[in-house]
Design goal:
Elements (H helix, E strand, L loop, with lengths): L1 H5 L19 H9 L6 E2 L5 H11 L4 H6 L3 E2 L4 H5 L3 H12 L8 E4 L7 H9 L6 E2 L5 H11 L4 H6 L3 E2 L4 H5 L10 H4 L4 H16 L4 H4 L4 E7 L3 H7 L10 H4 L4 H9 L6 E4 L5 H14 L5 E8 L4 H9 L24 E5 L1
Parallel strand pairs: 6-7, 6-8
Antiparallel strand pairs: 1-2, 3-9, 4-5, 8-9
Amino acid sequence: MACATLFEPIAIIGISCEFAGGIHMPIDLWQALEESRDLGSEIPVERTDLLSYCADTLNRDNGEFKRKLIRRGYFLPTSVLDTFDAERLEIMACATSFEPIAIIGMSCEFAGGIHMPIDLWQALEESRDLGSEIPVERTDLLSYCADMLNRDNSEFKRKLIRRGYFLPTSVLDTFDADYFNLSDGEAVTIDPCHRLLLMKFVHLIEDAGYTLEKMRGSRTSVHIGQFSNDHAMGSLRLKPEHRTRFLGPHILLYNASARLSYHFDLHGPNVSLDTACSSGLQAIHLGVQGLRAGEADMAVCGGINTIFTPEQLLNFSTIGAVAVDGRSRSFSIDANGYAKGIDKAATT
């Protein structure tokens, strides 16, 4: 395998050059090499800056410097250096850098019963608050918060969050393993984030008017931002007998994007990234760059975050980064942190 990849032939499909001695194309250079032609010359007469400098230096009484001063080299004509088609370059830059990017499909899953983009749009129009107290079914978080509040630490009590944006456990636990051709044993070890990504990818493609069959083999890139890795934290606390052979790969963040590309046979760049709160926006930024660079014909970009262990609440409560009342107030004088939540959004 190593030999097969290490010594695979590499094809040079294009060459351009510009050298002294009238060499404008590779064929010119080839002929000059065959003829052993000297491409050097005295300093060209049009290079008055260099000539006057040399003349001034030679007039000085420094024999050592005079001996070292070069009078010959390899110079491009000033006509080559001064020729610049700014208009053509500007047209090319516009064509590659500012071509409009069309969003042809969207899917999402947010707290407050937001299952589709239209739900989110309506909630925004109505200025609806999608947050809630910690759901009663999240006994792990509730018991943790109760334990923390019973401790004698008034500062920590003040910072401990009791409100956020939570998906129902029914959404997180619902997964059709057969549909995705996965065994029940494997499906249960997959990060719930990645299970949600698989399901929402199907919705995304349907919203874009494509079929999964049409997507297979396409030059589609996948860029997914994932902030938390709660699944790994929880898995490390499992007893050895509960750790299956599937667990190892399924707790790694690279699977956020890799699983989508592999499962749906997408042939394009694949990136999982974590840039904290900007992960989703960074994913879109990279996807757009890839489209404009010709790396892919289509890009799937998204972000996801989940809260499965109390540690995430603890860490962000301790540093005071999370709003105690569970509300984000961007640019407001009343802002006291941001609201934690479980969410997923993607665009094509």
